[in-house]
Amino acid sequence: MQQFDCRKSVIILASQIVAFGCLATTASAQEHVRAHVPMLSSPTIHEGAQINTEARAIYMYNDIPKGFITPNGQGSINSVSFQLRYAINERWALIMTKGGYVSADFENSLPDADGPSNFAFGAKYAILAAPSIGRYLTVGGRYEAPVGDVSAGNVDLQGGGDGLFDTFVSWSSLVGDHTALQSSAGFNMAFDGDHDSSFFHYSFHVDHEMVSRFYAVLEGNLVTTIIEGDRTDATLFGSFEGYDLFNFGNTSSGTVATLGAGVRLRLTDYLLFGAGLEFPVTSREDIVNIRFLSDAVLQF
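and the corresponding structure tokens:
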């Protein structure tokens, strides 16, 4: 079983928050609140620190690396998902961050699979809330209910077990009038360790308004297994995990880090569109060779 030093994660997270806090001291207070630009890549991992109300529809095409499970294994995954957030007040928000439909074409490795994904919901609370400069420090939790039904032969991709619970902390701040930073980290822990794997996750986001209402976005994500599952035998299927889409409960897995880049357009004060690419920067890829993401966000 892979070991993980939690102290290192806490140190990394604390250093990021302190660094972002120092940078944010240059942010000038504005007459109006700068609109929140959501994370684009790996959307079910990163939860923004802002307390806001929004509905989001996401489409993702995920290309599977060649050599997945078998030497000739590859394929693709298409997913459509929805997210909802509701601000109860300036500090509390209810969130629904995972729910939708997944279709996977596993060429030369597993049977094709499709079905509804798991459903994740929870709440977050802003310990620090300064909307005029977009500065938030937020903690939260969400439960991933194992209601999905996606199986490839005898391998369950979604559903089963007792679900997972993710505790996370998020930070955001403006830097000047046109740039914003976001960062988040958390532990997504399986209630049934014999069925699902448990993970530590970290994400960062930078957006810059190039021209009015048009933003360039740069992001990074990391997912590392801290407790392997006991459902999918690595000696038969190989060492891999499901990154942010699936949970194979593999008996051997590790760390995947990705970079994402894209653009966002604020069509109106309430409606945003985004598109971008995400790709791994570690030798381990799991199910991600490269992916294309697009979304539409309605903010209230």
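(Above: one complete record from the training split.) Residues 29 and 133 are 5 Å apart (CA to CA).
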